[in-house]
Design a protein that fits this description.
single chain; about 160 residues; mainly alpha; about 75% helix
Length: about 160
């Protein structure tokens, strides 16, 4: 799957700089904390800025539910917890809510909301940091690979 997507990325006729930019923006979207909205965000950005959809989707689909979603979520949470000085484990109050749900109590849902911020805040911070770091690294690497591929293709032609 990744190999086929990468071949499509190499075959795009746009300038390498534009293709690398679209791919790196896709990577930014892939690591963003807005789970479930990645494809929509990539489509909107591609249409608004007239990016090649293959390039932006290739970057966005680095985060997929079958292989990379769980490691990205775990890494995002761990990085955010580290940055906020929080432990990597869920607080005991949160674990208790999971173990003993009281689904018919409004107090239960209030507690779930309060406790969820112990997970959401580190995840959002970590995911945002990973988005920036990974997309900044993706641009020069993708640009280098695209230029190298084009030079090799020109030599063989």
């Amino acid at each position: 799957m990744f190999r086929a997507t990468f071949r499509r990325l190499l075959a795009i006729d746009d300038p390498p700089e534009r293709t690398a930019l679209a791919f790196s923006i896709g990577v930014f979207i892939a690591f963003s904390p807005f789970l479930g909205l990645h494809t929509i965000a990539a489509t909107l950005v591609a249409f608004l800025f007239r990016f090649n959809k293959i390039a932006i989707y290739a970057g966005t689909f680095l985060n997929n539910p079958f292989l990379t979603l769980v490691p990205i979520i775990v890494a995002s949470y761990a990085l955010g917890a580290l940055m906020l000085g929080r432990p990597l484990s869920i607080p005991p109050e949160g674990v208790e809510l999971i173990k003993n749900p009281h689904l018919l109590s409004s107090d239960y849902y209030n507690q779930v909301f309060v406790q969820s911020w112990y997970v959401v805040a580190p995840f959002a911070l970590g995911a945002t940091l990973l988005s920036v770091i990974c997309s900044v690294l993706a641009y020069p690497l993708t640009l280098w690979l695209l230029r190298k591929h084009r030079k090799r293709r020109e030599k063989s032609a």
